[in-house]
Amino acid sequence: MATLISGTPLLVQQWRALVNKNMKIASRNKRATLIQILAPFIFMFLFYVVEKTLSLSSWSLPELKAPPSTVVQGIPPCETKFYVKRPCFDFVWSGNSSRRAHDIVSRIMANNFGRPISSNKVKSFGTPAEVDAWLFNDPLRCPATVHFAEKNATVISYGVQANFTRTVKGGIAENPTMKFLVPLQVAVEREIARSFLGDDFQWTVGLKEFPRPAAPMGNYSVDDNFGILAPVFLFTITMFAFLFQISAIALEKEQKLRQAMNIMGLYDSAYWLSWLTWESLVILVSSLCTIFSGMIFRFDLFLHNSFATAIAFLLSAFIGKSSSAFRAGFWIFLIGAILQFTAQVIGPDSKKGRYLYFLPPSLLAHAIGMLIGDPETKNKHGISWKERAKCPVDSNCVLTLNDVYIRLIYTFFCWFLLALYFDNVVPSPNGTVKPLLYFLNPRYWIGRGGNTTQGGICGHNGSIPAPDHNPSTDEDVLEEENTVKWQMSSNEVDPNIAVQVRGLAKTFPGKLIIRCCCGCRRTDPFHAIKGLYLNVVKDQLFCLLGPNGAGKTTTINCLTGITSVTRGDAIVHGNSIRSSVGMSNIRKMIGVCPQFDILWNVLTGEEHLQLFACIKGLQPASIKQVVKKSLEEVRLSDSAKVRAGSYSGGMRRRLSVASALLGDPKLIILDEPTTGMDPISRRHVWDIIENAKRGRAIILTTHSMEEADVLGDRIGIMAKGRLRCLGTSIRLKSRFGTGFVTNLSFANTNSTQNSANKEAVKAFFKQSLGVSPKEESNAFLTFVIPRQKEVLLKRMLGEFQDRQREFGVADIQLGLTTLDEVFLNIARQAELETAASEGRFVTLDLASGTSVKIPVGARYVAISGTENAQNPRGVMVEVYWEQDDSGALCISGHSPERPVPLNVQPTLPVAPPKNLDRHIALGLVIDPSQL
């Protein structure tokens, strides 16, 4: 095994490689990177447009340095008021019991500036209460009223009243004070004065505003709009970067890229530090773009404050991790925006605000409000870096800008540490989980205790039912199981054993299915592995075969730490797979070629191997040479600089095989490594695997029986979660094959003579062994001889060789049946056992039109209800079965109906079908040994 670095040097090497990987991916995904960089400019432009639109529509007063004077005019006609009922009154007055009041009102009517007021345009009442009652019962009849109260001969008081409801007509707002109330007040005061001083008294009143700066007429100014919108738009910019972050991390999880790196020995600390470093650089660039775009659009926040301020705000982009990036980003943005508005309304000094102002969105809104400055003062210089710990001129100041920085940093580290913790204890596709208090275990920090089993947040499996452990009926499998159990009980450590699987079991719990009408049902648990016992010897290749769903990939996932174990254990070079420390040690000494290629499409083949070599811990000086040699071994030197996304399926598999062989691992696990390869490449990879056996153990899974036959030193076949047979290729063929295969080739090229010779040979084999040719051509015949005929085979072949020239046979070849036959027989037998245990039935439609319900897998079936005088025992058929793509048994045909022999005793199925249709007959099972 090559010398690998470890500890801090490996951490630094992995960190550099991962940051370099992120940089290359970003540089090659130009469109996404450009969008991320330009996003601040786009959002700032939208902010600028919205802010300018609001400023144009705001009600504001212009600056007024030398205000002009305006002479108050006479009482206007009531018809000039917006939305008045007709007939209307110019004004209404009370106090008509006073002679002096009558006189004053008459003077007002006669001396009104510009026009006299007729008597039908004025209405009088005795008291103010009567006026109010009239106004309530008949509103909108007059614009203003005046109330007189004579105190004595020299004193008379009055009060004026108007409808101050704001009305707008044709885009013009009516001002009832200046239009009706002031003219009425001036007329009343003028005529009261003249009643004491005489009619010659001149009375002219003018109005003049105070000089003023520009000021808002409503409740909000332009700066108020900025203070409300700035937190939302800046938070949107941070969330845009946040979406890119969680999308990148989620993509690596979805494509199992992190899983592949973990299997190679990646430190979690290196992984997160690399992302932290890279995203910090991205956020720095995004922050500078935000600042520059703010300066371009001349926002005071960016013109009068320090550059470091906006960078600190964007630290909130580091919070949270999610596997659904856009959904999580939307909800975080929505909740953050609500928190911003809530915090601005409540304020940091309230009891509830104390908790809100520990969240980044609230802190962002508060800090921006402080940086904008006081909009009522001319000197809106914001806050300089030196003044960050001081409160602005505000009596309500509770949090300074320095407090905001401290809280942002504090919350960042809190979220980051929580992310690390839950990444280790929550089940995920990245590997086995750690105990809830794993960080309190000293063994975790010192890297010892690889034999101590542990469980994570879902480590307790007491609620998951255990599979029925039925001891294997195969003698080789049973012997292997007993050997492993004896070694476990005696604590014997065999140095020649690389992997020892000890009763490994994996059960996936059932899922809760919710139906309509509030009904729910939980599906049955699925037992993927049912107590596997196995020794994998060093310097050998163990080939694990099985149909889809047999448990092969689940077994490998358990050995590599991808899937947690329900029961049992496995020891890999002295380390338990149920220990987090043990799994860390195992990953340093294994190489894995997964079932599906786990590659980055934008990285080249050379860059992949360089990255994996750095993660594996190869010496930096040797990485370049090792990568070059690995590419040459798998014949990818010419495509080393080509991106993996452009590779064919076979090239991607070769790259995965090269990755598995990096670092000279003690154990190599290859999950269908040659899938998709052409025959030449497949043969070349076989040579690589064969040469890799020396000094290490190899576990290989494949669907190619030829590959298993060529490479496997020992072969095991799994089906339905159990190991069904175990041994060398020859032993499996001799025990589970259909028998022997005899190939005959004929020497005579004359077709007539050949036909005669073939007929003679077929008759000889039929008479001697009772077999017919399985395959036949012009010059060849192939016979399959059952194992039961083995005792007759020697005598028959001797006789056949003596008559070889008579039969015109040029060559005789005798061999065992292929491994394909063994595989199909084992898979079929497992399916039969499962069907029998589950009591499954299918309907067989006979050629005669009769339908029969028979157990799945039954070969000979007697049909109930067919007894008659001609066939007193009824009739029977032989059912032909085959397996579909999923491995399930299905009927392919049946023999003609024939009478049931007298010596045969058909039996009812173990579990007859329920609710059998009266038009369908029940099939009775016949034991083949009775025929």
UniProtKB/TrEMBL annotation:
What kind of membrane protein is this, topologically?
Multi-pass membrane protein
Record keywords, A-Z: ATP-binding, Membrane, Nucleotide-binding, Transmembrane, Transmembrane helix, Transport
UniProt xrefs under SUPFAM superfamilies: P-loop containing nucleoside triphosphate hydrolases
Whether Flavoprotein counts among this entry's keywords is no
Q: What residue stretch is flagged as signal peptide?
A: none
InterPro entries listed in its UniProt record: AAA+_ATPase, ABC2_TM, ABC_transporter-like_ATP-bd, ABC_transporter-like_CS, ABCA, ABCA2/9/11_C, P-loop_NTPase
Query: Locate the ABC transporter domain: which residues?
Result: 499-745
Compartments, as annotated in UniProt: Membrane
| GO MF terms held by the record | ABC-type transporter activity; ATP binding; ATP hydrolysis activity; lipid transporter activity
Which residues span the membrane? 32-50, 226-251, 272-296, 302-319, 326-343, 404-422
Q: Which GO terms describe its cellular component?
A: membrane
Query: What family is this protein classified in?
Result: Belongs to the ABC transporter superfamily. ABCA family. CPR flippase (TC 3.A.1.211) subfamily.
Protein name (Swiss-Prot/TrEMBL): ABC transporter domain-containing protein
Q: Which organism is it from?
A: Saponaria officinalis (Common soapwort)
